[in-house]
Predict the 3D structure of the following.
Amino acid sequence: MKKSSRSESGPVKVEVFGLTHPGQVRKNNEDNFTVCNLSNGECSLQPTVRNHTVGKFGTLLLVADGMGGESAGEIASQICTATVPKRLYDNLKSLDRISEVNCVLLLREAIEFANQVIQQQAQSNSSYHGMGTTATACVLFRNHLFVAQVGDSRAYLVRKDNLVQLTRDQTFLNYLADIGQEMPEGEEKEKRKSILTQAVGTSETLDVRVTYADVRQGDWIVVCSDGLHNMVESSDLLAAVSGTDTVVAKCQSLIDLANKNGGKDNITVILSQISGSGLAPADEETKVEAKEFREEDFQSD
């Protein structure tokens, strides 16, 4: 069985906040996000969620960046952020035993279900035709952070002044790199940078990529849309998260920085710090490692 970095007993605690902003260019904000205590199904930024102890079903952080004409992108991201936590919570409650494997399988299924719901809405309303959304969903479960991704919204983990990206943008540029094609330059590269290879709601089939990392006391989770990570350098993102401000002030400073740098897209960020004796302490030897999820890593011999 995979080794655990979790302490024998004790709670895991989460402090979390999130903000979204339309930016300086777009008229509508097509981003949406949600924070959900999966152990009781509460999705909000009320004090009971902003500071809570992680229960047996874990905690969900989800950013969705919608796309489509008029308000369609906003509808798609709203459907995603409403459907995924409810579907995941309902299915987790139905299980007799919760494990890392069935947690991840149900997280994937919840995003696939949201894909079906968005498609049905688009088919029933012509003004929603072609709408879709990214989905980057992080579930903190025991001593692991599982990250399911569709699109190019990102998740990072910050530990001891190190920022590690846990996701890989599902863009046409990365697809070209994967198949060994020559990369475009200049304006053509910028145009292709924003072309996604998949989105929730735009196709009957969906390849939900899942990575994971072990978490330690004091780690920060960052989930954001491309309106943030395209406007804010990684060094500035790290500096904001590593500072001494409150989590609310850190979120606001990142939104402000993205707007100061142009605010060319909608901007969304969720920040969460993990603590508690249920996790092993972080030290210089415990580097963050993003790994592709494999069921066999969490199964007994």
